[in-house]
Amino acid sequence: MSKSRKLLSLLVCVVVLGIIGYLIVPFVLLKYVNGMMLGVHVNVVSLKSLDCVNLKGISINRGNINGNIISAVACRNSKTVIAYGGSVTIKLGSGISGSNNSTGEFDKYRIICTNLSLKVLKDDSVLQLENVGVDGPIVSAPSGTATFKYGKLTFENIDINRNSKAIKIGHAKTFQDGIGDINVYGIKSSIDSKSINVGIDNIIIKHDENLSIRARDVIITFLPYKFVQGSAKKVLVSNPVLFSDTLSVEDIEVAPFPISDVKTTDHLIGIRGITFNANIAKKRVIGKGSCKEWLRALPPELKISQIDQVKFKGDMKFSIELIPDVKFKLHNGCMIDGPAPEFIKALSSTFKYTAYHPNSGGTFERTSGPGSPEWVPFKLVSDTMVKALTTTEDPGFFSHRGIIPQAIENSIKDNLRLGRFFRGGSTITMQLVKNLWLSRKRTLGRKIQEAILTVALESSLPKEKILELYLNVVEFGPDLYGIGPGANKLLGTPPSNITLSQALYLVLRLPAPSRSGTYEQMKGKIAKMLDLMTTSGKVTEEEAGYEKAFLFEDFNDEN
What we know:
Blueprint: H1 3-34, E1 40-47, E2 52-61, E3 65-75, E4 80-91, E5 110-122, E6 125-135, E7 138-148, E8 151-161, E9 166-176, E10 180-191, E11 196-206, E12 212-223, E13 227-238, E14 247-258, E15 266-271, E16 274-279, E17 284-290, H2 291-297, H3 305-308, E18 312-313, E19 315-321, E20 327-332, E21 335-336, H4 342-345, E22 351-356, E23 363-368, H5 383-392, H6 405-418, H7 428-437, H8 444-458, H9 463-473, E24 475-477, E25 480-481, H10 483-491, H11 500-508, H12 523-536, H13 541-558
Parallel strand pairs: 4-5
Antiparallel strand pairs: 1-2, 2-3, 3-4, 5-6, 6-7, 7-8, 8-9, 9-10, 10-11, 11-12, 12-13, 13-14, 14-15, 15-16, 16-17, 17-19, 18-21, 19-20, 22-23, 24-25
Helix pairs in contact: 5-11, 7-8, 7-9, 11-12, 12-13
């Protein structure tokens, strides 16, 4: 055979082998690849190199995993599959199905995916992630959404480790009717055989323009997938009804409770030694602890200098229930532990406190106390003032310890009815505390400050001294502070000569000293108060009759 014929024969063999390889090799590769992974089918396979193949039109049907991948590159020696684009749905809790003849060799490969759309289904909940990247056990996505029966959440910067069962989320946000905007930052979770643990750097809830709540360093644990417990290093609450500044509560722990019955279950909450039993459905809260622990658990924003000096002993317990009707109960065993605090001792001599101008609302410092020019000792005040005060302002003054649970219950009812903080059930001692050391802003935080200082004052001073202080600092009219200036200016008489009718006139001015009528204009109200005092037994009918005759005799003489 000539040399040229040999070359031609060789060329024909190469061409034939090429044609056979072109026709048969992809078919063989397709059969081989489709047998490598359970429940995975590839439509097109082509050689990329001696080690790698190109895959196109990949469909997945593994029972719990279904979807399509646009294209991929699989390399045998490196045991790697790199997939590009597509969408996959995972049903949690479903079994894996596949051909019994499949070797499952692909399951040993390292899977890398980019630009993947991933949907995870669990009962009625749906997790949707876009632009997903997968590198072995690590799944990451720049954004996603979760829809479940309680609402819808959006996510940013999600990382999932399938081996360690850990999840990290940079930011999550949701909106729920009745709650508001919820933003969650720095979520880290892990799952083991006993629990799901979730750590959160920050939770911010924006209910409306007046209420926002922020929780820091939160830990939530699900035990064992049926119960939940939690803790927070600090919770910050901003609400003008609560306080003028943001309030912070530290070291909160919630004992385990059933997830399925979150609304009707009693929740045990601990705050620095104080235990609260809360029930959402019944709108009921019970709190108890030692008085020392109550002070320790107080938000630092409420700890003004006077409260910092207070040391209590004893125990305190309260319960409040809002349905079917408001009920409030209080056991107050708190009292000063040791000698009176310095801020109370300072009241035995001249002291200064903040007073208010009626028109401008501006403040000024007023000097009072024994030895001050306008001070009137208790023994120089007519006893009619005591009768009048304990009729209109505080009927149980001599029997209570500064706080009246029934008055607080009534104030809660009124505040709920009006939808704002309107009144707080103040006693004479509470009013004195407010005038001496607190602002006039009506907030729940100020009432808490007021209650603490009231208990401190009541357990440090006798009732007569409290009345003496009250009568000398309270406002009776525009720029008229104290019983001395009030009696002289409004009645033209010294405090020692005040009649019962005149005393009633002065105390009737206390709720609105700058807007009250004159003595003549208020005689009808004074007469009604005299009837009330007769009914309660504080004065006899003869005394009341004499006062009325004198009251209206004056009126007739002036007209």
